Each structure stands twice: as C-alpha cells, then as structure tokens.
Amino acid sequence: MTLFKKFKHLxxxxxxxxxxxxxxxILFLIPTxxxxxxxxxYSLTDAIIAGQYLSETEIAGLNDAVPLVNMALNFTWGCTSxxxxxxxxxIGAKNPDDARKSFWLQAWLSLxxxxxxxxxxxxxxxxxxxxxxxVPSTEGSEMNNVYIAAATYVFVISLGIIAQVSxxxxxxxxxxxxxxxxxxxxxxxxxxxxxxxxxxxxVGCHLGVAGAALATILSELLAAIGSCIYTFLRYxxxxxxxxxxxxxxxxxxxxxxxxxxxxxxxxxLQIGIIIMQAAIVKYDYVDSTGADFVLNTPAQLGYSxxxxxxxxxxxxxxxxxxxxxxxxxxxxxxxxxDRIKKGYRDSLIIGLCAWIxxxxxxxxxxxxxxxxxxxxxDDKVTATTLRYGNAYLYxxxxxxxxxxxxxxxxxxxxxxNKPLFPFLAGIGELFARSLICLYxxxxxxxxxIDSTASIESFYFVCAADPLAxxxxxxxxLIPMVSLLVKSHKKNKQLISLSNNEKK
Length: 503
Known about the structure:
Blueprint: H1 2-9, H2 21-53, H3 56-92, H4 96-123, H5 125-131, H6 142-159, H7 161-176, H8 181-204, H9 208-234, H10 249-281, H11 298-333, H12 337-365, H13 372-375, H14 383-396, H15 400-415, H16 420-445, H17 455-462, H18 464-502
Helix pairs in contact: 2-8, 2-9, 2-11, 2-12, 3-4, 3-6, 3-7, 3-10, 3-11, 4-6, 4-7, 6-9, 7-9, 8-9, 10-16, 11-12, 11-14, 11-15, 12-15, 14-17, 15-18, 16-17, 16-18
C-alpha cells in the first residue's frame, strides 16, 4: 500500500510557487526530460526502422521531409505552449475559473490553427520540397524516387495534424498545472504504440514512408484520446461549465499575444533548419547544377543521423526550458519576483551541469561512429557518412551550453508575458543560420558546392547552428539582464527604506 501511495503521489501537481526552488525544478524537470527523451525515441523509431527496411532513396526522401513536417508541428507546439502560459498565470494567482476558461479557449484556438495549417501544407507540398532542392525528375530516376517518398510522407502527416495539436493542447495544460509526470506516461504509451505500428505498417504491410507516417498519426491520436480522458477524470476543475466560452476579446488577445509569436518563432527556427538541409543536399550533387544525384546520399545520411543524436542530447536542455515556462508562469501569476530571479539563477546552474554531461556523451559517441550503427543498417555506414556526421557533432556538442542559455532565457521571458524579444531572437536566429548556409560554404570552397566540395566548407554549414544560437541568446539577454538589474535596484531601494524606517 505504501508503494502504491508513493506511485500515486507522482501524479500530484507540483505547486511551483512555494517550497525549495531547486528541488521543485528538479522534480518537475525529471519527468519532462524523460518525456522529451521518449519523444526523441518516438521520432528515432521511424528512423531506425526506416534505416533497416527502406531503400536509400526512400530514406533520403524521409530525411528531406522531416524538417518540413517539423516546421508545421513546431508551430502548433509553440502556439499551445504559449497559450498554456495563461493557465500557469491563473494557477499561480489562485484563479481556477479563469484557468478553466483559458483551457477551453485554447481548444477553439488550436482547432482553428489545425484547419489553417492542414490546408496550407497540402496546397504547398511541391513549393516546399522545391525550396529544399527536392523536385520531380525523370520517372524511375533516383531524384524522382526521393521526391515521391518526401511528398508522400508530408501529405500523410498533414492529414493527422489534428492528433498532434490535440495532444499538445492537453500536455501543455498539464505541465502548466504543475503535472509533468502524466505527460511522460502518455508519451511512453504513444512511443510503444508507434514502435508496434511501425513494424506492422513498414515491415508487415510494406507501406514504406506512408506506413511510417500512418504509425506516427495513429499513435499520437491514441495518446491524445487517452490524455483527454485522464485530464477530465483527474482535474474536475477543467470540466466544461456553461458560460466558459463567454470570454472578453482582451482575454482572447492575451492568448494570441503569447501563442502566435511563440508558434511563429518555432516555425521560423525550423525554416532555418530547412535552409540548412538545402545546403547539405548540395553535397550529394554530382555537379553544382543539381542535374544528377548521388544515390548513396552520404552527406544527408551522415548529417541526419548526427542530428538525431544531437536531438537526443538536447533533451535535458530543452526540458529545462519547458520546465521554466511553467515555473515562471506560476510565479509571475503569484507576483513573486524574488522567486522568479532565484529560479532563473538555479536553472542556469542545473543547465550547466546537464551541458557538461551531454557534451561528453556526444563526443564519446563519435568514436568509431558508434551512433551511426544505431540509426543505419551496417552497409549504409561508410567512411563518408562518418566524416559528415562527426563534423556536425564536433562543432555542435561543445556549443550546447549556448543552446541551454537560449532555452532557459527564452522560456523565462515567455513565462513573464514578454513574447517580443523571444520572437525577435527567433528572427535573428533565422537570419544568422540562413546567411551562413547560403554564403559561407561556397566562399570557403572557392566555388559552387557539389559532392567534391571540401570538408572545411561543410564545417561552416555545421557552424550555422551554434552561431545562430549565439545571436539569439544575445538578443534575449538584453531584456533579461535589464529586468534583473531593475529588480536589483528595486530591492536595494526597499532595503534602504526599511533601514531608514528602523532609524
């Protein structure tokens, strides 16, 4: 019975407005880290099974399609995360009625986002693929097969965006309430379902990339349904009451002011990644015109598997940022300025320790290219794929500390209802990554990029990520430092007044 009570206690939401700051952050952080790790596993499952059972052109198409899909999904994730800040604020302010109204308003806003996004993607598949250099070619050619695979995956995934949005809506709300354990369990459930469906559709039914997309959609749909049922059973305060949709236009604008900028910010970041993907595709061209294509696609394969490992390494850092969104949101609602400052400081200390750990693991994984054998069949791992993959990890891993500062500061400002600078940081990150990818490789190579380009030029493509993180972090630290300085001066004035009164 004691063990059961301890397990049941894990589902209790954490009141982030009181108690030990470091303890609360770590307790909230651990399930969030595990959630993001499983989220990466969720994505990696498709990649691993695809790497073992799909053709090289299908794998290349899948790798090209994923950034486009992520652009849409990141937008929805940003919107729902931004919307949920209002719930955190209302919970911190001990106002459950407004928290419930916010919850149901988010449902309608998320539905609108879903419809617009689904239609937009379906109508723009060809232009989006053309943007990254994937175009239809001669029937039966390698390039045409890559195009077909990419277009198929994007189309099928776009039909299931509603499942992803519904799931994001629920788990964002749960975390806003201080519950990070329940989202973790639902993600584990979704991951296991996804693995089973991957084998069923790809290996059993031979549906190729369409099977991978269907497995993802169905597993997310089941997770969304399960999390909805749990939320309404567990949190009775969120159940719909008559009049919950009767909210002021200012209340709606408050949600849009936080959700849309964060959504666009996440989407903008993905556009930068797509531009980076387009730069990498060129390293698989036989010549700089792109008239022919290298079947083995070593640059894309090497980079994609390195990027998957990097995504896994980012999980603790990203989770820390996600945790800060809920922590800052609740304490902002409670008007506890001192606790906000201390939380920001403690999160950076925790992040520093996490960065040292993940950097070490990432660099160790480059030895003999161990990570590539996890994501690719042995015959697809070559000296060339290792060269490209390791080049990215050598540069990205030591710079993850910059990314940690970016995650923590961005979500802190978002939780403080200050979306402008995070949005500007996203634009700055986009421009930095784009300029480097578009101009630096050819400049270093001394000419247009193709499969014969120097590895030194590829290093500059890889450097686009850390340099973009640095630009964004600098933009975010301007208002953050300003807020901390103002708060410090305010505290000094209060202390001075208190001392004068005592005299």
